[in-house]
Amino acid sequence: MRADAKRNLDKIVEAAAEVVAERGANAPMEAIAKRAGVGVGTLYRRFPDRHALIAAVGDLYIHTMANALGEAARSASDAWGAIWDFVSWAAEPGRAALATALAEVPQEAIVDRAEFAKTRSRWIEQFDGLVRRAQAEGSMRPDVGVDDLVHLLAVFTCHPAELPEPVAADPGRYLRLMLDGMKADAATPAAHRPS
Questions:
Q1: CATH number of the domain where residue 104 is located
Q2: What is the pLDDT of residue 193?
Q3: At residue 126, does pLDDT exceed 70?
Q4: CATH number where 25 lies
Q5: Are residues 62 and 28 in the same domain?
Q6: What average pLDDT does range 38-43 have in this prediction?
Q7: Residue 183: what are its φ and ψ, rounded to 5°?
Q8: What is the DSSP string of the chain?
Q9: How many domains does the chain divide into?
């Protein structure tokens, strides 16, 4: 693909991500083309239908998540700081709005695709490495796993309609409160269950 064609493609996908975050996965294709500064015909030449465009937005989203986690790992002084920075970044309103819109799309349209699955697997592996490092450094509870963090991110950023209104209005705050409970010094002994 020529460099200018690649730039046009990237511009369309980035514009689509913005419009989908604002208006949902059923945002008009015309609005996406206008935001990208291209004609509707150009949009349809690149993406024959909405499903193809939404799949590309999903790929952009998961690549962005993986890149942001890598950047947090490089720039933070320790693994706990990297986890904190990344979770705070992921919960920013515009980003959470895109996650919410993509969560409404059938799984097979995004999550089950090979490109998305490959990048998500790399992201999870990287995230798991940070969790293990934070535990080895003594800053994170040993009974917390990467799945716990992924589930929390999904609840707070992908499904705001299922949260109480104050929580949905500021998911980042509540995610950070949950993170505080994952610190090593916040751990409480497990309750003994009667036999």
A1: 1.10.357.10
A2: 44
A3: yes
A4: 1.10.10.60
A5: no
A6: 91
A7: -65, 150
A8: --HHHHHHHHHHHHHHHHHHHHH-TT--HHHHHHHHTS-HHHHHHH-SSHHHHHHHHHHHHHHHHHHHHHHHHHHSSSHHHHHHHHHHHHTSHHHHHHHHHHHTS-HHHHTTSHHHHHHHHHHHHHHHHHHHHHHHTT-B-TT--HHHHHHHHIIIII-GGGS-HHHHH-HHHHHHHHHHTTBGGG--PPPPPP-
A9: 2
Who has greater pLDDT, 2 or 158?
A: 158
> Quick one: pLDDT at residue 158?
80
- For residue 34, being part of any structural domain is answered with yes
Judgement on whether residues 7 and 41 belong to the same structural domain of the protein: yes
pLDDT (mean) for 147-168:
84
pLDDT of residue 156: 80
pLDDT (0 to 100) of residue 76: 94
Let me know if residue 192 belongs to a domain.
no
Domain range enclosing 42: 1-48
Residue 66 contacts residue 60 (beta carbons within 8 Å): no
Instruction: Let me know whether 36 and 88 are in one domain.
Output: no
d(CA 59, CA 17): 10
Please determine, for residue 113, whether its predicted confidence score (pLDDT) is greater than 50.
yes
- Token representation of residue 172: 């980042």
Task: Decide if 191 is inside a domain.
Answer: no
